[in-house]
Specification:
The structure is a single chain. The protein is α+β, with helices and mostly antiparallel strands. The protein has a single domain, classed as OB fold (Dihydrolipoamide Acetyltransferase, E2P), CATH 2.40.50. 26% of the residues lie in helices and 40% in strands. The protein is built from 1 helix and 5 strands, in the order E-E-E-E-E-H. The longest helix is centred in the C-terminal third of the chain and has 21 residues. The protein starts with a strand and ends with a helix.
């Protein structure tokens, strides 16, 4: 498996569910114990499978940028509904 970009959508029952970026239609479900570092919901990552373990690189700048965009949208929605 080559390096592929994903976004962590959720963690359920010990599994991390990643959505392939940018379409976010294809899922990659990984047992949390097979992940090499802690990840949080919303993190944008690069994933490479190596010997049944997943090497994950968190893309901090992209993650922070996306979180800022989402926060801005939420703020505008709140103002609109007041």
């Amino acid at each position: 498996m080559s390096l592929t970009k994903y976004t962590l959508d959720r963690i359920e029952d010990g599994y991390a569910v990643f959505l392939k970026y940018p379409e976010e239609e294809e899922q990659l479900i990984i047992l949390q114990s097979a992940i090499n570092k802690p990840v949080q919901v919303g993190d944008r990552v690069l994933i490479e499978e190596i010997d049944d373990f997943y090497q994950i690189e968190i893309l901090k700048e992209e993650t922070e940028q996306k979180k800022a965009e989402i926060q801005s949208l939420m703020d505008r929605l709140r103002k609109k509904n007041q």
